[in-house]
Amino acid sequence: MQYHAHITYFWRMVLTAELLSPNLMQLFIQTGWLEWCGVFTGILCVWLAAKNNIYNWPIAIVSVVIYLFIFFDSKLYADMGLQVYFLIMNAYGWYFWNKTKNATHERPVSTITSKEILLSAAGIVVFTYGLGTFLYKNTDASFPFVDSFCTACSLIAQLFLARKVLQNWLIWIFVDIIYVGVYISKDLYATALMYALYIYIAAVGYLNWRKTYREQNN
After folding, report:
1. What's the number of domains the chain is made of?
2. 64-76 pLDDT tens trace
3. pTM across the whole model
4. Which residues are CB-contacts of 98 (< 8 A; sequence separation ≥ 6)?
5. Which of 18, 59, 64, 185 supports an S-S bond with 86, CB 3.0-4.6 Å?
6. What backbone phi and psi angles, to 5 degrees, belong to 165?
């Protein structure tokens, strides 16, 4: 019952009339400079990743450091911890993509396997239940189970992005839709806007990578 109650509360918050408030523009204006820096670097790094550009990684490192502080202040502890993972994976992705910089071709795009799908699904379920329960019982975290689910999906998506697995973009589209609702409910409107833009960029990234994948296999 506690899971159902949290999901219901989450969506009730998302669908409140606050979203349509005439003061919405003022809320954007009042967004702090740190969040705007996070938004700018976040959008830029995802766009570069969608374009298969290796410089997405150093910019992503700057973005995740900024959001470490933002999510701590918003009590989104699972998301804060996720930034630490992103920091490590961004360094790994930079290294992994850079291994072939002197070769005549870029590191190829790969596609997900059945084994990876099963392991990913199992990992998401276990992680969501474990972390969600811990946050619910031991912290004042907002939306512990929704936040934990999004974190679990993001862990998988980021790993697939670093390994150049095509379907990472489909996972990002799914999880970013949920994140938009989370950040609206926490009054992080600029960040919500950024994640809405991420949905579009992820769609572009998927189409670009799919084209590359087909070309390299023809």
Report:
1. 1
2. 999 898 888 877 7
3. 0.73
4. 54
5. 64
6. -90, 125
Q: What is the DSSP string of 123-185?
A: HHHHHHHHHHHHHHHHS--SSHHHHHHHHHHHHHHHHHHHTTBTTHHHHHHHHHHHHHHHHHH
CA nearest neighbour of 189 among 82, 154, 197, 61 = 197
Q: What gap in Å lies between CA 16 and CA 215, rounded to an integer? A: 46
20-67 confidence digits (pLDDT tens): 454 555 555 666 788 888 888 988 988 898 888 889 999 999 999 998
- Whether residue 92 lies inside any domain: the answer is yes
Q: Is 24 a domain residue?
A: no
Instruction: Give the integer Cα–Cα distance in Å for 154 and 143.
Output: 16
51 in a structural domain: yes
Rg of the chain on CA atoms, in Å: 18
> Under 8 Å CB-to-CB from 139, ≥6 apart: which residues?
75, 77
Tell whether 205 is covered by a domain.
Answer: yes
